[in-house]
Amino acid sequence: MDPVLLLKGALPSVVAALLLVSLLGGRGLPLAAGLGIYLAFGLLKDWPPAPHVLWHDPNGAAWLIWGMIALATVATLDHLRLLHGRAAPTTSGIAGVAVLYLMLAKIAQRWSLGDAALHLGVAAVVVALTISAFRGVLARAPRSAAPAVLMSVLLSLDAGLVTLGKSALLGQLCGAVAAALGAAVATTIWRRGFSLATPDGVWIGGAHALFVLAGVHLGYLEWLPAGFALAAPLPLWLLRGTSNNRPVAWFMIAGAMPLAMMGIAMWLAAPAPSPYDY
Amino acid sequence: MKTLLLLPTILIAALTPFAATSNAPARGGSSSSGANEWDVDSGHSICIFACKHANAAWFYGTFDRVEGKLTLDLDDLKASSVALSIPVESLDSNNGQRDGHLKSPDFFNAKENPEMTFNSTKIVKDGEDLEVTGELSMAGATQTITIPVQWTGDGEMRGKRRGYLAEFSVKRSDFGMNYGIAKKALSDEVKLTISLELIQAK
User: Fold this and answer.
1) Could A276 and B105 be called an inter-chain contact, meaning their C-beta atoms sit closer than 8 Å?
2) ipTM of the complex as predicted
3) Assessment of whether the complete model's pTM goes beyond 0.95
4) N or C terminus of chain A with fewer C-beta within 10 Å?
């Protein structure tokens, strides 16, 4: 992999996360991830067209960028306690499904009504459930950097999986989100402890589900590895109670099943060895 | 006697250019008159692309299917038009993994943009050949380009047939396909060769 391309993908997120988390604390992380992925897309491909342009001339990858910014905005509003009661989870779920719809809008035009209902329906349930699951997991996770480390590893594996699905661009964009999380953890070196909170479930869970689905629908990722990847965070949901005193143990227990499932997904997606490199 | 022997030789030599001319395809402009509707014979048409790898050598691939319709009135080119479409899924670069990558959002974004299309806006004669200006769309972007088109011949096999050859280059960055350009892994310039066999529509 070209190191310059890797830097173009990851560096904006890293810089944005270091700056915004240092200044604003964990509340600044969603915005850093949104800003980072926007800059990464611009540096790697083109600046994404504005939403009103995309509405008339859709592009799934560009909608995914704006979608991640929208999910980051929802998370920030939630961090700032501007979404009360059921508004936070409801808005998070609706936002995730809306991003999915916009991302697949162009492809869906060529689907039959039945296929569109099936693909969009199943994917919408997956996105809404994933966001809900990540919010639940983060609500119960220890207040330490361990959950952020786990989520960063999970999204890095997503990035690798989507790249195996033939799209380096989508892989790098997913890697940009993972890089923001990793950089946020690094801020613990010079400031008080960093931890994720419930609102972060919307953009982290959204990134996980949406990038894997983008890998299938926009790229050439097969459904079987994608299914393992989409199901990978589900064991996290089964974890009950917090383990504030033992974040490392939490990481080991919480991470074992999801990371194993992601490993299977990547093994399934890996191409057969070929003597002919391209 | 010598004169008698020389006479046939001189006659043959003198007639040879005319014979050669009559065997050669007639000029595109005069081989037909009046409006003609033509379909692309996909089985005998192809689009070949070439892209430079690692700034070293050109590697070649094909789009195995070329579809389209042409209206050709060589006496009134304003009444003529060219509409071609090439399914991106027909891409074959002799490497399955590379084919998948080329079809992905890094390049053609084939799931969202399954076809490359060309629709003419202006056709002019250039001697015996044509210059076709039109809108080339691929990967969700459209550019106006002018393509020199060489007429390659007329024939007859299960209907009237006509051949054209177009060789031109495009910059893939003009269509948002930037992957690998900065490091010169793959060249920005892509050479395209389109060979069309047309069959007169019935």
Assistant:
1) no
2) 0.82
3) no
4) N
